[in-house]
Amino acid sequence: MPELPEVETVRGGIEKAALGKIIKEITVNRRDLRFPLSEEFEEALTGARFENFTRRGKYVIAHISGGHVMVLHLGMSGRVRIFAPDQEYTARKHDHVIFTLDDGARLVFEDPRRFGYILLRADEDWEALPPFDAMGPEPLGNEFNGDILRVKLKGRKTPIKTALLDQRIVAGLGNIYVCEALYRAGIHPARLSGKVKPAESEALTRHIRDVLKDAIKAGGSTLRDYQKTDGSLGYFQYSFGVYDREGQACPDCDCDVLKTGGVARMVQSGRSSYYCARRQK
Ligand SMILES: [Zn+2]
């Protein structure tokens, strides 16, 4: 599932192709996405201009003239393919929504599993509605720091891994980047949130930011379905310290894998956590 770095990469790709452009035509092949596409969708947006593209958590927010925002969530397998003005559009089976812009470019939302969706919201209140009303701070923004995280974790009996996946505590993180940030911070994924010391929560916020920035630079991580808007792949998966590396040596240990077993895996809330038992306590 795309996390913050992948969504940010997609946002940047859309922005490059569509900023300032007018939506000339919208073709909807399927309305029954995870949430059905609004009946007003085509009418509200045709003829309007893409004025800005931002991101909140794992969502791309397209700000559109006429008082609307379009909220895009990629779900598990969602992709945005972009066709340049001089490029011929090649249809695929799961192309659900196609935007044709005034310069002839096309933005195509493709999603075989249909866990993704597009919401049409009013510009003035989208942040006050779910899921944004309860969403925690942006990890790359100024609001996120060691003190804020410490307050949010205080007294919690949930494992730190589970807490960091909770979008109300911090926005945009998923399984990959939580595992990687905890590894870099030397904190065991099963440690109770309330037992994370103030200095550790300070270091953890720094490592969360660093791993996200590194991943954005690499265009995200490509594991299964994710690819960039031009069809190319992110490559941060080659920089993983622990994620999906069970039994392998972790990059910062000189221990003998045959003796230690290398990177360990445990299941928490139904999802795999990867960690180094030697570095993470
Ligand atoms: Zn290690």
Structure in words:
There is one protein chain. Helix content is 25%, strand content 21%. The chain has 281 residues and is α+β, with helices and mostly antiparallel strands. The chain has a four-stranded antiparallel sheet with strand order 1-6-7-5, covered by helices on one side. Strands 2-3-4-8 form a four-stranded antiparallel sheet. It has a two-stranded antiparallel sheet with strand order 9-10. Strand 9 and strand 10 form a beta hairpin. Helix 3 (146-153) crosses helix 6 (198-217) and helix 5 (175-185) crosses helix 6 (198-217). The longest helix has 20 residues, at 198-217. Zinc ion is lined by residues 250, 252-253, 276, 278-279.
Which keywords apply here?
four-stranded antiparallel sheet; 7 helices; binds zinc ion; single chain; 281 residues; globular; 25% helix; alpha+beta
